[in-house]
Amino acid sequence: GSGEEKAMIILERTAVMNLENAMRGARNPMNSWKNSDSFYDEEGNYILGENDLSLARRLRLAGSDHRKFIRQIFVSVDVTAPLYWWKEYDTYKVATVANSTSTMHKIHAKPFSLEDFSHDQMSGEALSLFRDYISKLEKIRLRYLEGGKKKEDWYDLIQLLPSSYHQLRTLSMDYETLVNIYFARRSHKLFEWHRFCEWIETLPYAEELILAEKRLHP
Questions:
Q1: Helix-, strand-, coil-residue percentages of the chain, each rounded to 5
Q2: Which of 11, 109, 121, 205 counts the most CB atoms within 10 A of its CB?
């Protein structure tokens, strides 16, 4: 299969919050709360009624001032991705927060294996070179642990660590940030971005609140 299918990024434990409050706020400018027809289903999900959905669609397409309410819909997700992808994600500085597992403090905590790195696009030759490289890294890790944790061994690990190394971060952001990410990155040449944009498409009311323009101009 192509790398498209197996890009090495994992998105899990997604939570979407504050949809009810955001929609109530969307009605504040017109004092039109009585027209609200949304409700909670048996599972505790907030379901937008036809009136609210129609208002949400109109505001979303009316431009960023009118769609302020989507900045109040919050998303949290755990993402495991290679450092080279995180480097690109880090250009999104506004309205996002991330807590990451610490490479500096925990790099020596478990054995290195091929699964800790993105290698889905490597040719056979690169892969065999990479396997050797990882086994050398593992030798240095053991030397660090068994040799009294010398600083030079730790520096070897940090400076030899490839950017394909996986890191887990818990991300929080809002729907407005996801609009920016989606339209900037959906055609990016890194497959990880395609996977991330596919995840965005699965969020509650993504169709109406995030991807709106895509439906007008695919």
A1: 50, 15, 30
A2: 205
